[in-house]
Amino acid sequence: MATAGDGARNEFIEGLALVLAGSGLQRMAARMLAAVLSSESGSSTVPELTETLQVSPAAISGAGRALIQSGFLIKTRNPGDRLDSYSLGGDHWYEAVISRNPVYERLAAELERGVRAVGPKTAPGRRLAETRDFFAFIAERTPELVREWQQLRDARDGA
Fold this sequence. Notes:
Elements: H1 6-22, H2 27-37, E1 43-45, H3 46-53, H4 57-69, E2 74-76, E3 85-87, H5 93-100, H6 103-118, H7 123-157
Antiparallel strand pairs: 1-3, 2-3
């Protein structure tokens, strides 16, 4: 059912999707994530998503697979329901995505291979080494940043 806020919500969905797509997320997956994030319950069925995003169920299915694989969403079905729902899977989904995402360590390892391949004393070797060190730093600091965020959130919420 359409509401007065649907226009503003749709603008938000498309705006956030542009930012997420610009950061590397597939455009349809970005739109779907924005739709679920901005849903009342933090969960949406395929028919709800097809109506909100004006796309086919197949588009939702493909985007859903990508979001599940990357840890952004989970797929659930309530007992007795015939419809799957995509949901955020808890209040701390973003922490789970960040803290368990091994991409920074993998990038650092690959960059180390690059340093060895071109030589550490060459211009590209120095550039690769600096990039490697940056991603190693991010990988090392991420768990600490998640803990800091949890402390800030708990203090804000009075926990």
